[in-house]
DNA sequence: TTTATATCTCAATATTCATTGAGATATTGA
DNA sequence: TCAATATCTCAATGAATATTGAGATATAAA
């Protein structure tokens, strides 16, 4: 799924709301297994109705996926979409300016699970 | 300038509007010299009033800078802020999932000015 | 100093978005 | 089947945002 401008616009809009940004961060932490809607709502302190609204918004924007599992609906982060958005932004940013925009090597995420600063 | 959550929220909000996203892309293309407000407005087909409003919004969000130069006000992209936002997103995205989220090497921007796909 | 140029500011309006609470739907277990 | 649980949907309200046009401000040139 290519991250083009209209798609990026939807993704940015989805991430520009405090409750939704928190939800995405909670889901990224949760890993591929995801979390039930209720647990996400609790984690970000949103009412059931508000959680449902914002999760639907994130799903429409393509940043999270959902599946039913018994009584619960499990949401999980769409890592490909999130990294696609980051790449879109990096491309825009680095266009002709790689020296300025390339992050320093020691701040890059490694595959070895090194500790990282708290967000 | 650290890209924390409130700052990212403002940046995402600024980028979630079509005119403003176009403006950022125009300014990234323009390079460090930047462009006059009028030229940016023309490029994204916004009225003088609308261009002023959206440029001020982008500046408040810390994504562009401005300076007066004779009669014109010149706006330029803040590359550090843009890459900081991309990094923020990458960190969130890759948290515990570097294998999934690390972009493939051949899609990475190089420092040698290699051609890239059109956005 | 007068005029032209470039941009900004302001107020009015329209549109979009978030929140709330009530209640509908789906699933499970007694 | 009935009750409990988990989530969604809907309508109403309020809040934030975008657009427009008129006009104010700053700079430069005649």
What does this structure look like?
- 2 copies of one chain form a homodimer.
- Chain A has a domain at 5-80: Winged helix-like DNA-binding domain superfamily/Winged helix DNA-binding domain (Arc Repressor Mutant, subunit A).
- In chain A, strand 2 and strand 3 (72-77) form a beta hairpin.
- Chain A has helices at residues 5-15, 18-30, 37-44, 48-60, 79-94, 98-101; strands at 35-36, 64-69, 72-77.
- Chain A contains 6 helices and 3 strands; from the N terminus they run H-H-E-H-H-E-E-H-H.
- In chain A, strands 1-3-2 form a 3-stranded antiparallel sheet.
- The model of chain A is unreliable at 104-119 (pLDDT under 50).
- Chain A starts with a helix and ends in an 18-residue tail after the last helix.
- With 119 residues, chain A is mainly alpha-helical.
- The longest helix of chain A is centred in the C-terminal third of the chain and has 16 residues, at 79-94.
- At the A-B interface, helix 1, helix 2, helix 5 and helix 6 of A face helix 1, helix 2, helix 5 and helix 6 of B.
- The structure holds a DNA duplex (30 and 30 nucleotides).
Summarize the structure.
Two copies of one chain form a homodimer. Chain A has 119 residues and is mainly α.
Structural key phrases:
homodimer; 119 residues; mainly alpha; Arc Repressor Mutant, subunit A; 3-stranded antiparallel β-sheet; 6 helices; 3 strands; elongated; DNA-binding
